[in-house]
Each structure stands twice: as C-alpha cells, then as structure tokens.
Design a protein that fits this description.
This protein folds into two domains: 92 residues, Arc Repressor Mutant, subunit A, CATH 1.10.10; 244 residues, Penicillin V Acylase, Chain A. Helix content is 34%, strand content 25%. A hairpin with a 5-residue loop joins β4 and β5. α1 runs parallel beside α4, α3 crosses α4 and α4 crosses α5. The protein is globular, with a radius of gyration of 18 Å. The N terminus is likely disordered.
Length: 354
C-alpha cells in the first residue's frame, strides 16, 4: 500500500435523517454505483446469490422499521442522491451481515487501547479486500444528534469514529453460527452509537436494547473507561480493560458466544494475532501513540497484524491493511493513515476533529 493524499473526504450534514442521506448520496454520486457493483461481485464470489442478497436487505428493512425507521429515510436519501436503488444502499450498509450468509474465511482487523500519558488512546489496523481500496473515505457527520468523524466506505453510514462528546469506537467483525440479517446492521449500529451516546456506559446501554442478530466487537473508549463489547445472537458481553489496555482481534473472548463461534472463518489467525499483541505488551504499555502503532507491525513469518495482499490469489482472497487509525477521545480527534503501520513514519496522516 502507498499513501494517497487525494483520498476522498466528505462533509455530511442535514437537519433530518433524509437530508443526511441526500447529502451523503450526492457527495458520492460519482463513485457509489461502482462501489455497489464491486460489492455485488464480492457477494457472488463469496457464495451469496442475488436473491439471497435481496432477501437479506428486506429482512434488514423489516428490523429497522421496527427500531429506528428514520434510518430507512436516510438510506432512501442516499439512494436518491447517488442514483441507485434503496435495496443496494441497504445491502452496502448490511455488507457484514450479507457476507456472513456466504460463510467464507477471512483475515481481519486488530485493535488496541492503552492509557498513555494519563489518558486513553485507541489504535486499529483496518484490513479488507484490496479491490475495495478505491471505495473508502473519511467523513464528518453533522445532523440529528452528536457530530462525529471517522472512516467508512462508500454509502455506508459509519465504521470507525469519534464523536464530539469524546466517545471513540473501533470495529472488528466476529462470527457466530446464528448470525443473520434480522437485526440492525453493525455498521448502522456504529452510526447510532456515535450520534446518540456520550460515554461508554451510554453506548453499552443502547447496544443492549438494540435488535442485534449478527456479530461484531465495538472497542470503545472515553476519558474514564475502555471496553470491547462483543455482540452476537447469543447476547452482549463487555470485555473490560485490564492493566490499562484492551486488545481485540476477530474471535470471541467471552465463553458464551465462543461456544457457537464460526471458528473456521477467522481462526487460527485471530488467536495468533491476539497472542502476539499480548506478548508485546507483557513488558509494559506503550509510552506514546507512535509506539502503539508499532505494536501492530508484523514481519515475515509473524501473524498478520499488518496484512499484505497476495496478488497471486483471486478476488475474495486478497487482503491488505487499507488504513491505520488512531483515536484520542479526550481531544475528540481521529488520525487516519492511508496504508499500513509500516508507513506510519513516512506516510501522510489525516487528522479529523469531531
């Protein structure tokens, strides 16, 4: 990966959810149709038929109609602004849930929080299919609720971010055997948390009442607490900070959801990455943000905390670290590097302020 100073940034604003959607869709009109087409191709590669994708989108619409119908108005605005179908916008926002219907293996992200200089910081590598690298961007969202900034993909309302109240959210996919598209999509839940919650405690309370039917972990931090919240059809299970740090990869750490984990999806890779991070922290926590980034470096023969695409493979199997993210909830900032931790010292970081 190389740094890309031209990486798209959009400002999304509106007094209502529909206006937010129109703002996002209009800003992405030149690229969102191609982004959906590339995702539709990925769904087929991973064994999800067009009919299954459409059915999944319909199930998501039913769940959101009962929980947060205004979100569907936002999706309709995105579709209108970008000139694509509502079902396609829903499928993008439910891409985690749609992909889970195919059940293929993957490599994924690594996240770490630490108390540095008296306050908490978060760092994450975002690993994804290299073919989708053209279709992510940073954004600032100002509308109903709290303002937030972050990194997301074309047409998707949220992923990693920090809000104006000083709540930061990192995102890791998990896999449970009962996962399905019958609840709020995880990327959509990220948006709701960032726009409605002022603290980790408020976020956990909201997540517990949300209709969760798929699996991910939100590693969240504010001025007083860091926690990684495992969500799945089995329930919501916070993994608390220990010795000043939370570490997260892509397997369940709580025994209840672990009992029905799709271990073939992320293992043994995920456990090996977590063990490497913990081994590096055994002698003490990093003293600065750049040292936190270095914890997520991995070299030849080590578990892929830093993921390099194998271009000899085909679409669906070529994983790369597309971005490296640092959050500072006290400062309400998020720094984004377009590339891997190996480029942290020479690459161009973009700083977003909520």
């Amino acid at each position: 990966m190389t740094t890309t100073p031209e990486r798209l940034h959009i400002d999304v604003s509106g007094a209502t959810h529909r206006e937010l959607g129109l703002s996002r869709g209009t800003a992405l009109r030149a690229t969102l149709p191609a982004a959906y087409a590339k995702y539709a191709e990925l769904f087929r590669v991973l064994g999800v038929s067009e009919a299954t994708e459409r059915e999944g989108a319909e199930r998501v619409i039913a769940a959101l109609s009962a929980w947060r119908p205004a979100l569907l108005e936002e999706f309709a605005g995105i579709a209108e602004g970008a000139g694509i179908e509502l079902a396609q916008v829903v499928a993008l926002n439910a891409r985690t849930e749609i992909i889970a219907l195919g059940g293929r293996g993957a490599s994924e992200c690594s996240t770490l929080t630490a108390q540095v200089g008296g306050h908490r910081l978060g760092v994450q590598t975002w690993d994804w299919h290299i073919e989708l690298d053209p279709f992510w961007h940073t954004h600032a969202v100002t509308g109903p609720g709290l303002r937030y900034v972050g990194l997301t993909e074309q047409g998707i309302v949220s992923k990693i971010g920090v809000n104006e109240a000083g709540l930061a959210l990192h995102f890791n996919i998990l896999g449970h055997r009962e996962d399905g598209p019958d609840g709020v999509p995880m990327h959509v839940l990220s948006s709701v948390v960032l726009s409605e919650c002022r603290s980790v405690d408020e976020a956990i309370e909201l997540i517990r009442e949300a209709p969760v039917a798929s699996s991910s972990a939100f590693t969240m931090l504010d001025a007083s607490r860091a926690v990684s919240v495992e969500m799945s059809p089995a329930g919501v299970f916070p993994i608390e900070e220990m010795n000043g740090s939370v570490q997260r990869t892509n397997h369940f750490q709580h025994e209840s959801p672990l009992a029905a984990q799709k271990s073939e999806i992320y293992e043994p890779d995920s456990s090996a990455r977590l063990a490497l991070v913990r081994e590096r922290l055994a002698s003490g926590l990093p003293d600065a943000a750049d040292e936190m980034v270095r914890v997520l470096l991995s070299g030849e023969g080590e578990p892929p905390l830093t993921c390099r695409a194998d271009m000899s493979k085909s679409y669906g199997e070529r994983w790369a670290t597309l971005a490296t993210v640092l959050t500072d909830p006290d400062a309400r900032t998020m720094r984004v590097l377009d590339g891997m931790p190996t480029e942290a010292e020479t690459g161009e970081w973009r700083t977003l302020v909520a």
